[in-house]
Design goal:
- There is one protein chain.
- By secondary structure, the protein is an alpha/beta fold.
- The chain has 13 helices and 12 strands.
- The two termini are about 20 Å apart.
Length: about 325
Amino acid sequence: MTKTNKKLLLIMPMFFDYPQIIKRKLYDMGYDVDVFDDRPSTSGWVKAAVRIDRNLLKNYIKHYFDTMMSTIGKNHYHVVLLISGQSLSLGKDMIETIRASQPQALFVLYQWDSLHNFPYIAQMHCYFDKLYTFDRHDAAQNDQLKFLPLFYCERYEQIKKLTSCNFQYDFCFVGTAHPKKYKLVNRMSAQLKPVYPNQFIYFFYPSRLVFFYRKLRNRELRKSHYGEFHFTPLSGKEMEDIFKASRCVLDSAQSGQTGLTIRVLEALGAGKKLITTNEDVKNYDFYRPENIYIYDGDIDMSSPFFTESYREIDTVIYEKYSLRSWLEELLSP
C-alpha cells in the first residue's frame, strides 16, 4: 500500500457504495481523501427537489455548502475531483468559491451524464483544468471535453473468476425507472420470457414524490403500478450477489444519452453477457457480438449472442477499463 502524502477532495453522487470504493482505491494510490455528497441529503424529498428544481432547496443547499467549506477551507488539496450527474446541487458561485480557496489544486471534472440531459454543467467548465465526459458524442462535439468511459471495480473482477454455472436468474436489471427505460425494459422482459424465464427486475426511484411526479407527466408510466417500483437503493453487496446469481445483464440507456452506463462496465468486469439498448456500444473496443446484444425492438435468437459462448476479452483491453486505470487518467498531470 502506498503511503498517503497527497490530499484530494472528491465531490460526487452517493451512488451505491462507489464513493467508498473510489476513496479506498485513491488511498491505495497515495491520496488522503475527503468525500462530500453532491447534494445536502440522500433523503427522498431532497433527491426529488434537486432533480425537479434545485432552487426549491436554495437555503438548505447554502447551509450544506457552508458546512462543506468549514472543512475544505482548512485544507490544501492537491486535486479537486467533481464527478457530476443530474443530482449536483452546487451552484456556479459555489464551485467558484471552492476554486478560490484552493488555488494550488488541480481541478478535474468528470461528467457522468450527457450535456443533452444536464446542460447546466457547462456553466462550470471554466473552473476546471481538465474536463472529461463518459459520452463519446459530447466529446466529439466539444473540444474541451476528453472522452473517458466509466469503469468496473474489483468486486466485478472477482465475480469473473467464479466458475459456477448454477444461476438463479437468466438476467438481471437494476436501474432508475426513467419513463422510456421502464417501457423498453418491460418490452425486453416480455420478449425474452420464453428463453429467459427467471428474471430479476428492480425498478428504482429516489423517492415516492419523484415516482408520482413522473407518473403524472409521462405517458409511459400512466399504466404502471406502484408495486412495481422500489424506493430503497440496493447496497453494493446486494448488487454483487445479484450479479453472481445472474447469467446475463440487462441495460437500458436513459433517453438522450449515448454514454455507456456503469452497468455495461460492470458486466464487462464480471465477464457477463449483456443485452443493451445503447447501439453506441458497438464502437467500443471490447464489443463482441457473442457477448453483447444490441436491442432494437426485437429479439433475434439466431444472433451469436444466443448461439455462442462468452468470448474472452484481450487482457490489455479488459484492464483498460479498471477503476485504477480510470483514476490514473483523471489524475495524470
